[in-house]
Design a protein that fits this description.
Blueprint (H helix, E strand, L loop, with lengths): L2 H22 L6 H15 L4 H36 L1 H10 L7 H12 L5 H22 L6 H19 L4 H9 L4 H27 L10 H8 L35 H24 L5 H9 L2 H17 L6 H13 L2 H19 L2 H12 L3 H16 L2 H12 L7 H14 L9 H9 L4 H27 L3
């Protein structure tokens, strides 16, 4: 490598170090601001002309938000409609109400897998907490469960939600990586599902069976359990109850298959699956149909992420909001509120896009590609490792994904199985070693009444298992590339 290449690699090292410091120092700079500051400093240090640097910032942030931002906003609205209407609750109860005790962790996994398709990790977990707590409370009252029933049911939900959040579009991280690496949407979804299913099984129900007996003392605060289950705080876990697991739950679903929210369970499931089905139909059309045919063109259009998420939102709007007689003002307020929770994520994604573009336009990306090729590093492992380290040190999986994508992008020609596997690997890397600087860690800790050690054995270990298993599956599938 030339002296200039070494200089560019040193700039990148200093830039990443500065990014980590700004986010984690006492100043606690917001990741968006830190990304923009570091992007400007990196471009100047690399010798990029000032006029070109400004253009790189604008094109990088605008292009990334144009590709990802609209889809993310529509996804947040869809998730809020499903949550407000009780549709997600109906989905979960439809899967779980008639299960045996041994099958409950697997059905919680299935419920979290379905619910996690349109929802972020934190939102999906909050939606599932009433279900987890109410079923765990029944198990606790019955007795005979080895260890904490809350851990037994909580771990599968954590595994499924985190896997989908990090490894599958239309979640913002994988969608950003997919766009930056020019990966095919349908192929990425197929590969993502292939990697996600075994990952969720091993990190979820299998690990839950092992860890639950070792955390037998874990139990959420009684007031929190009562709040989520609607039970009286005076009813202690050791009190006998007449309800048993597997009995029908009149409060959640009537005998005609209608949820307590008034929404038929089938429609609730359809509202979640509409975007996914449209995206998969696009892949099918591109694979087996003549691209000049009318059907192929229509399915390709409907399978675009923005159009698919819009279709899902409109369907959900009809069956969960307007169909239930909610006022337009109430629905609009709910949708507006849903966007507040993703404003910071959108800014971070935009900042990451700006940083990525500066890396490419300044020549640093080409220098990284040259160094990696000279060292004969596996690009899938490299992408996973960069995302893991950046997520660990910055406390943001999104920062890890967008930064790793910008660093790795010059090494990938775009499209094909390799690009899709790299999207999965980078997303998996961003999930690992989730600890005290991640919001999800504290949500799990406080929700389940855990101390730091217990939360580490659940949230941190589960997401690290997901990360490592996701990488392993990506490497295994790469043998067929």
């Amino acid at each position: 490598m030339t002296t200039h290449t070494w200089w560019l690699l040193l700039i990148l090292t200093l830039a990443v170090t500065a990014l980590i410091y700004l986010i984690n120092s006492r100043l606690r700079i917001h990741p968006f601001v830190a990304l923009i500051v570091v992007a400007v400093g990196t471009g100047l240090a690399a010798g990029e002309p000032v006029a070109k640097l400004v253009e790189s910032l604008e094109d990088g942030a605008g292009g990334t938000l144009g590709d990802v931002g609209i889809t993310l906003a529509l996804g947040a609205m869809l998730g809020r409609l499903l949550s407000d209407s009780g549709a997600t609750d109906a989905l979960a109860h439809a899967l779980i109400d008639r299960s045996s005790t041994r099958g409950l962790p697997w059905l919680v996994t299935a419920a979290a897998f379905v619910i996690g398709i349109p929802m972020f990790f934190e939102v999906g977990l909050i939606v599932l907490l009433p279900l987890i707590f109410s079923v765990a409370r029944r198990l606790e009252a019955q007795g005979g469960t080895k260890g904490s029933p809350y851990v037994l049911l909580g771990v599968p939900a954590i595994a499924a939600l985190s896997t989908l959040h990090g490894m599958l579009p239309p979640h913002p991280g994988p969608l950003t990586a997919m766009t930056g690496l020019h990966a095919d949407l349908g192929l990425t979804m197929v590969v993502g599902f292939a990697c996600a299913v075994p990952t969720v099984i091993l990190a979820g129900p299998v690990y839950a069976r092992w860890i639950a007996p070792r955390l037998a003392e874990v139990r959420p605060d009684e007031a929190l359990v009562a709040q989520f289950t609607g039970a009286s705080q005076s009813v202690r876990a050791k009190s006998p109850v007449s309800v048993t697991v597997g009995a029908s739950n009149a409060s959640s679903e009537d005998t005609d298959g209608t949820s307590r929210s008034g929404i038929p369970t089938g429609l609730a499931i359809a509202a979640v699956l509409v975007p996914v089905v449209l995206m998969l139909l696009r892949t099918l059309a591109e694979t087996v149909l003549d691209e000049t045919s009318t059907v192929s063109s229509a399915l390709t259009f409907l399978g675009e992420p923005v159009v698919a998420m819009l279709a899902g939102l409109l369907f959900a709007l009809g069956v969960t909001a307007l169909g239930r007689g909610r006022s337009g003002e109430e629905v609009r307020a709910s949708l507006t509120d849903s966007l507040k929770s993703i404003a910071a994520i959108l800014l971070i994604i935009g900042g990451g896009g700006a940083f990525k573009q500066v890396l490419q336009d300044s020549g640093i990306g080409d220098a990284i590609a040259s160094a990696a090729k000279g060292a004969h590093l596996n690009v899938i492992v490299l992408g996973w490792l960069i995302a893991l380290l950046l997520s660990l040190t910055t406390g943001s999986a999104t920062v890890g994904i967008v930064s790793a994508t910008g660093i790795i992008a010059p090494m990938v020609s775009g499209g094909g199985l390799d690009a899709s596997l790299l999207v999965v690997a980078i997303g998996a890397g961003s999930l690992g070693l989730n600890y005290v600087n991640h919001a999800g860690f504290w949500l799990v800790k406080e929700s389940f009444g855990m101390d730091l050690t217990q939360a580490t054995k659940t949230q941190t270990v589960v997401q690290t298992l997901v990360s490592v298993l996701g990488l392993g599956m990506a490497l295994l599938l790469s043998l067929f590339a």
